[in-house]
Amino acid sequence: MSAVQEHTTGLHIEALHAFWQQTLHGASSGAMLPWDLQSTLLAGLGLNNLEVLRYLNTERPSYEVFEAWVVALTGDGSAESERERLRRALSGERVGSPIESLDSVEGLSEAELAQWDEQGYVIVRQAVSAESAQAAELAIYEHLGMSRDDPDSWYSEALGHTIWVPLLRHPAIVANRFAPRVVKAFAQLWGREDMWATVDQAGLNPPERPGWMFPGPRLHWDCTLARPHHMEIQGILYLAETEAAQGAFCCVPGFHKKLGEWLDALPVGVDARAEALRTLQAEPIAAGRGDLVLWHQSLPHGSSPNRASRPRVVQYMSMRPTRWDYNPEWR
Ligand SMILES: O=C(O)CCC(=O)C(=O)O
Q1: DSSP class of 271
Q2: Edge-to-edge strand list for the sheet holding 292-296
Q3: What is the per-residue pLDDT across 137-184, written as a single tens digit (0 to 9) for each?
Q4: Tens of pLDDT along 102-112?
Q5: Where does 91-129 have alpha helices with state H?
Q6: What was the pLDDT predicted at 76?
Q7: To test the ligand 1 pocket, which listed residue (159, 234, 301) has its Cβ within 8 A of the most ligand atoms?
Q8: Is 323 within 8 Å of 95 (Cβ atoms)?
Q9: Residues 78-105: what's their mean pLDDT?
Q10: d(CA 288, CA 242)
Q11: Sequence-separated (6 or more) residues with CB below 8 Å from residue 269
Q12: For ligand 1, is residue 236 a contact (CB within 6 Å)?
């Protein structure tokens, strides 16, 4: 039995051992797992990238302890079928969607697909039902020890001075990630069905008031600006009605088609990210409870100050195929 096989007797996922090894022992420990497979591995196991890295770097566990941690965190009844799909995908097999057939699910219309192409973003209307959105919304308030109808509770220390809420695995949050219209929209935009849901945070952006001003994120990119630029999809699910002035998600529509030209026109030495923040005009995207805004990663985007009377409550989400084109150079 090889060293790797010895270490995969629990979950039987060789890539997990490779990931553990490269994280704790670096490139010298053997072949590095490419970024896309690493991301598929963690998504397929239902893990958030940062939580795993934080755990590994803090605890520096043996592989057996690491595997036990993964199982304890993610091992509900449905985990094994998804793990089996993951094993097949990692071995190079073309796998299908994470949910039953997408054929009967209503997808994005021709007009919505055209909007995605031209503007680089699209709103998937009622991607989840109003009830499912509300269940996740209430779970976020509960997690933070806040009451939806008590404004003074919205500034509790549990939130801190941030709009991010690290609630990753509440059943209502997980169910939204796999809602049929969510999966269908991602599959349509990627043009394939082997989708993997990233495990992202939730968010609560309360109205500004003295002592609590909007902390960002303002306009930025999460991707490299190095060429070639590739498509990746980011998403935010509104869990309650969100007006434009209510801390709505903002982006610069159509910029995915202009990024290269815009970068070429920048004077030498100018920091593209700072220049975007200084000069580009972003548009707030208002939408309803259960609506999902998807955007191309080349759009500069950010959140915005909440000048309305109720918090903006959201769930971030994305789906990617098993393998995709990406640029490993960060710029
Ligand atoms: O919360 C928002 O509206 C923006 C989210 C964002 O900037 C991001 O996901 O990178």
Answers
A1: -
A2: 121-124, 292-296, 233-238, 312-317, 202-205, 164-165
A3: 999 999 999 999 999 999 999 999 999 999 999 999 999 999 999 999
A4: 999 999 999 99
A5: 110-119
A6: 65
A7: 301
A8: no
A9: 93
A10: 6
A11: none
A12: yes
- pLDDT of res. 77: 62
The position carrying tokens 């629990």 is 10
Cα of 12 from ligand 1 centre, angstroms? 35
Query: 103: which DSSP letter?
Result: T
Q: Pick the residue whose CA is nearest to atom 2 on ligand 1.
A: 303
pLDDT tens, residue by residue, 174-225: 999 999 999 999 999 999 999 999 999 999 999 999 999 999 999 999 999 9
Q: How many whole angstroms separate alpha carbon 203 and alpha carbon 201?
A: 7
- CA 164 to ligand 1 centroid distance, Å: 9
Query: Among the atoms of ligand 1, which is closest to the Cα of residue 234?
Result: 9
Cis ω on the peptide bond leading into residue 321 (within 30° of 0)?
A: no
Question: CB of 284 closer than 6 A to ligand 1?
Answer: no
203 CB within 6 A, ligand 1: yes
- How many angstroms is it from 122 CA to the middle of ligand 1? 15
* C-alpha torsion sign, points 176, 178, 184, 185: positive
Map out the domains of the chain with their CATH numbers: 3-90 (no CATH), 110-320 (2.60.120.620)
